[in-house]
Design a protein that fits this description.
With 260 residues, the chain is α/β, with parallel strands linked by helices. It folds into two domains: 6-201, 2-enoyl-CoA Hydratase, Chain A, domain 1, CATH 3.90.226; 205-250. Helices cover 47% and strands 16% of the residues. The model has no long low-confidence stretch (mean pLDDT 98). The chain binds coenzyme A (COA). Coenzyme A (COA) binds next to helix 2 and strand 6.
Length: 260
Amino acid sequence: MKYNTILSDFSDGITTITINRPTKLNALNSTTIFELHTAFKSADIDTDTKVIIITGSGEKAFVAGADISEFANYDSEEGAALSKEGQDLLFDFVENLSTPVIAAVNGFALGGGLELAMSAHFRLASTNARMGLPEVSLGLIPGYGGTQRLAQLIGKGRAMELTMTASMIDATTALAYGLVNHVVPQEELLSKCYALADKIKSNSCLAISAAIKAINANYKDGVNGYDVEISEFGNCFDTEDFEEGTTAFLEKRKSKFPGK
Ligand code: COA
């Protein structure tokens, strides 16, 4: 499929989605959000895609936020609709995909950019990355899940401080906070993501989907994560992947998971 604001490339079991508006520091407008939804959906449906990597084009930004020029004249109703539609199409959607999503944060990840990175299942950053939720400096609050996910990832006190001050943290601080898992020089960022993706790819994709569901269950209102774990654990026993994984272990060979 041809996109106007993003690129999507498939190679060796990995789909890399790149937000491609470098002159606007990859700011998310409604077209980009819709195209990202389509690209993530296609990659998730594609059984050859085992891992999805999301990054930004250029050397300066992952995503510098939602496109401010698009919502500058909105009223409260339009603002709420923008937030709801974005969460449904992209941020909640990505978090709940059954295919693992890694964010390669290659520069500024601000506002909606950090919110997108936080929707991914985990994050890597380049040494030049800067992260923050500057919305209160615009008279807003984060509207794409940032008030929830930042506190989940770095704790309430740090999330309160970062949000209230509208300041940016550097990659080293993000690593210390647990917001990103690894920090590498920019030229090594994608290769480090691909190396991790290769490790993920060698495991059962069905078991990985079940693990995503169970881990995410901890953060859903009214859902008991332990119950979800019991149910997902049980389901694994009916899969060919389980049969292959256990047989391969007992036969002292490497598993070749059928993904069924
Ligand atoms: N929405 C729309 N356009 C944006 C944008 C955003 N969130 N972030 C950057 N851009 C655009 C700028 O308007 C500029 O466009 P122009 O060249 O047509 O004027 C271009 O991207 C480059 O940005 P610029 O501000 O000139 O780069 P910089 O290096 O001086 O500053 C930032 C970089 C990230 C500090 C700065 O762009 C910024 O503060 N952006 C907004 C961050 C934000 O508040 N995000 C939350 C939105 S809810």
